[in-house]
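User: My instructor asked us to take a sequence, write out its structure as C-alpha cells, and then describe one feature of it. I'm not sure where to start. Here is the sequence I was given:
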Amino acid sequence: MSTTPPEGTGPAEPVDPTSTPPHDLSKPQPPAAPPAPAYGAPVPGGPAYAAQPGYGAPVESNKSFVATWLLAWFLGVLGVDRFYLGKVGTGILKLVTCGGLGIWALVDIILTLAGVQRDKAGRPLAGYEQHKKLAWIITAIGFILGFAGSAANQATIVDQLDTSSAVVVVVEDAAL
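Assistant: Let's start with the prediction itself. The C-alpha cells for your sequence are:
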C-alpha cells in the first residue's frame, strides 16, 4: 500500500489497491440483487407454511389404523403389526420373544386403540378417528368372550377331574 500522498493533497491515507472505486451516483445504477431468504422463510413459488411437513396438523400415514389393529389383535405375538408399520427392528424382537410373552402384544393393541401407535416416520395412522369407537367395542367384546370362554373351559376341566375315576386296563397274553 502506498502511504505517500501526492504533493499538496493533505495527510496520507492508506490506499487499498483491491478496493473498487466508489460508484458515481449521478448515473443510473443496476437494481440490487434481492436478499437471500431467511432461514425458515417460504421459498418463492414454493408451498406455504401450512403445507410444509412439521407445520400445522400432522400428515396422516399411508398405513391403515384398521389393518394395524387387526394385525396387532390376531398376529401381534409374531410382530406382524410392527413389520406392517415399517418397524423391522422391533418386529424381529417381538417375533423372537413371542410378543414379549404376550405382554408386548397386549401393550401394542392398547397403543393402537389409544391412537398412540405411529408408523416408522412418526405419522399417525390413517382412519383412526373414523374407526376408533368400533375398534374399542369389538376389542372389549373379544376380551370379555375370551375371559368367559377361558373360565368356562377351566370349570369343565375341574369338573372332569373331580368325577373321573381311574381305569385300569389289563392285557393278558393270549395263545393263538
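For the description part of your assignment, you could build on this observation: Helices lie at 65-75, 80-84, 88-96, 98-101, 103-114, 128-163. Try explaining in your own words what that tells you about the chain.
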